[in-house]
Specification:
homodimer; 228 residues; alpha+beta; 2 domains; 10 strands; 21% strand; elongated; DNA-binding; CRP-like cAMP-binding protein (chains A, B); DNA-binding transcription factor activity (chains A, B); transcription (chains A, B); HTH_CRP (chains A, B)
DNA sequence: CGGCTCATTGAATATGGTCAACGCAAGTGG
DNA sequence: CCACTTGCGTTGACCATATTCAATGAGCCG
C-alpha cells in the first residue's frame, strides 16, 4: 500500500497543503479500498467517520428527491475528496456516492483531517478554497438547471463529459453513462433524454453506438447548448 | 459609527471567531454604507476588494443566464457576509448582489479578512463551516430545481419566506417580493408564477393583496410543496 | 391628467412527463 | 443448446406543464 507522501493524486486536492508530519499521520491511518461499479461508497444520511480520496475511477454524487427520482449533483473523479463537506459541518451525508465504474479510493479517518484543519491554517485555507470553488460551480448549476432547456443541458453534458473525461481511441466518450444516468444528471425523464440524444444523432451532432456516444460536431453541440 | 466588537450581527456569522485584536483591525478599516432598494452592491464580474456584512435589509444574489433571464440564487439577510467566496478564491464575483429593500451594510477590506484566515485557524474553520453549509444548501436547491414542478417550488418559496423573514402585524409576509422576483427565485416565467399564485389564492392557500402575500393555509401549502 | 410600473388574463404553442409496448443483448439454469 | 429472465435502449401516443406574445387593468407619482 502506497504512502500519501508519494501519492501524485494529492497534488490535485487540498491534501497538498499538509505538512510532512501531517501526511505521515494521514498515511498511517488511511485504508485503501476497491469499489466496484455500482457499489455505494456512502449513502444519504450516513454518518461519515472520514473522507474518501479518489485515486481512480468515477463516482456520481446524487440525492433522492422526495418524488423518488435521483438527481446527480456532480461527478467526482481522480483527486476529488468525497465526504469532506459532511465531516466539516459534522452532519450526516447530504448526498450518496456511487461508483460509476470500478474505483480505487483511500479512506482517511476524520481525526487526522480535523486536527490539521484546526492547527494548520495553510491546510484550512486550501480546503476553504476548494469548497468555495465547489460552491461557485453549484451556483452555476442552479442557474443552468432553472434557465436552460433539457436539450441545452444535454448538449452541455456531453461537452462536459468530453472535456473532463476525454475520449477513448475510437473517439467515444471515455466515461460511459447509462441513458438513465444522463437523464439524472440533467434532471429529466429517461425517455426525454433518449429522444433528445436520438435527435442529436439524426442531426449529426453526435454518433451513438449502444450506450457509447461520440461527439461528431463539437461546434454544433455548442450552438445547441447556448440555445439555437 | 459602531464598533465591530460590539456588533450583535457578528454573532450570526463567521466573524464571531475572530480575536479581539482582529476585530479591532476590522473595525478600523471597515466602512458602513446605506444601500437603497434596487441599488446594486456589486455585479457579476466585479473585482471585489472586500466583503460586505449585512446589518439590515435583504439582498438578492442573482446571475444572468445566457438567455437573458435573471436567476436569483439566494436571498441574504441580517448577518450574511456577501462576496466572501469571491475574495477567498480571488476570482471576480460570480453573482450580483442587489438590495431588495433598503439596507445597511459594512464593507470590510479583504486584507483584514485574508490575514486572519491565514493566521487564525479558528476563524478559517468557522468560515469553512459556513461555506460548507452554503454548499449543502446549494446542492439541495439543485435537486429542487430539477425535480420539482414550478407549483411545488412556489409553494416552498412562500414557506421559506415566512420562515426566514416572518410576517408583519397584518399577517403578510414581511419580505415583499415582486412577482418577477418570485419567478426568478423559482426559475420560471413571470406569468407562470402569477398564474400559480392566483391559483393558490383561489384554493385558499394564500391571501394576496397587490404584491403583498399572506399564507392562509400553511399545511395546504406544505402538501402542494411535497407534491399533491 | 398623463405616464409609469407592475399585476393579471387569454390563447396559442412548445416542451417535457408518463404509460405502455417492443427489441435486443447478456446472462442463467435446465 | 434452448427457453427464460432481466436490464436497457428505443419508440409511439397522449397528457400535463410551462413559455410566449399580446392585451388589459390597477395603482402610483409627478
Amino acid at each position: 500500500m502506497g504512502r500519501c507522501e508519494n501519492c501524485i493524486i494529492r497534488q490535485f486536492n487540498s491534501l497538498r497543503a499538509m505538512s510532512k508530519e501531517e501526511l505521515k499521520r494521514v498515511s498511517d491511518t488511511k485504508t485503501t479500498k476497491l469499489v466496484k461499479k455500482g457499489e455505494t461508497i456512502f449513502g444519504e444520511g450516513d454518518k461519515l467517520n472520514g473522507v474518501f480520496c479518489v485515486r481512480d475511477g468515477v463516482s456520481k454524487l446524487s440525492k433522492l428527491s422526495p418524488n423518488g427520482k435521483d438527481q446527480i449533483v456532480k461527478l467526482a473523479t481522480k483527486g476529488a475528496v468525497l465526504g469532506q463537506r459532511s465531516v466539516i459541518t459534522e452532519e450526516v451525508a447530504n448526498l450518496s456516492a456511487i461508483a460509476v465504474n470500478d474505483m480505487e479510493v483511500c479512506f482517511v479517518p476524520k481525526d487526522a483531517i480535523m486536527d490539521s484543519l484546526n492547527s494548520n491554517p495553510n491546510f484550512a485555507v486550501e480546503v476553504l478554497r476548494h469548497i468555495a470553488h465547489d460552491l461557485k460551480e453549484a451556483d452555476d448549476v442552479i442557474v443552468n438547471m432553472s434557465q436552460k432547456t433539457v436539450k441545452q443541458r444535454i448538449a452541455e453534458a456531453f461537452i462536459y463529459l468530453e472535456e473532463n473525461f476525454g475520449k477513448d481511441k475510437n473517439g467515444y466518450l471515455a466515461l460511459t453513462l447509462s441513458r438513465e444516468d444522463i437523464a439524472n444528471v440533467v434532471g429529466t425523464a429517461t425517455e426525454s433524454a433518449i429522444r433528445i440524444i436520438s435527435d442529436f444523432k439524426k442531426l449529426g451532432l453526435i454518433k451513438a453506438f449502444g450506450k457509447k456516444v461520440a461527439i461528431a460536431d463539437r461546434n454544433g453541440l455548442n450552438e445547441v447548448a447556448k440555445g439555437s
